[in-house]
Amino acid sequence: MMINLKMNGDMSAPALMVRVTVTLLTVGVFVLLVKLGFWQLSRGEEKLGFEEDLSARDSMAPLSLEQIESKVGKEVLTGYPLKAKVGTTSSPSFIGTT
User: Fold this and answer.
1) In this entry, which stretches build a coiled coil (predicted)?
2) Residue 28 phi, psi (nearest 5)
3) Torsion of CA 50, 55, 60, 66, to 10 degrees
4) Spatial distance between the Cα atoms of 63 and 78, rounded to a whole number of angstroms
5) Going residue by residue through the chain (98 aa), what tens digit of pLDDT does each one get?
6) For the CA atoms of the chain, what is the radius of gyration?
7) What are the Cα distances from residue 20, in Å, to 24, 40, 75?
8) Is the pTM of this model over 0.70?
9) Do 30 and 14 touch, CB atoms closer than 8 A?
10) Among residues 11, 24, 68, 77, which one has the fewest Cβ atoms lying within 10 Å of its Cβ?
């Protein structure tokens, strides 16, 4: 904060401009930081929702490969338990391809 030590109390135009600029900059940064804080709170709630979804999926019975393939493109597949037999084959198979 600038203190004006002039006897008559009048501020020159450049000093007033600096004071106004610093004040506006301070208010702008404060508003930005408050908005970022609220964004972090909403992002935290969103992540808690994801965590609950993953916990619910973790307690489910394992899905077959066919069940997983039927969900491709319709929802996020992260966290589903998968039960599959693995072996060798002459033709490669990829999830989500036809």
Assistant:
1) none
2) -60, -45
3) 40
4) 13
5) 666 555 555 668 888 899 999 999 999 999 999 999 999 999 999 999 989 988 888 888 888 888 888 888 888 778 888 777 777 777 776 666 55
6) 30
7) 6, 30, 52
8) no
9) no
10) 24
**SS3 of 36, please?**
helix
Instruction: Report CA torsion sign: 87, 91, 94, 98.
Output: negative
- CA-CA distance, 23 to 36, in Å (whole number)? 20
As a residue count, the chain comes to: 98
Tokens 């109390």, located at residue: 9
Euclidean distance between CA atoms 63 and 84, whole angstroms: 8
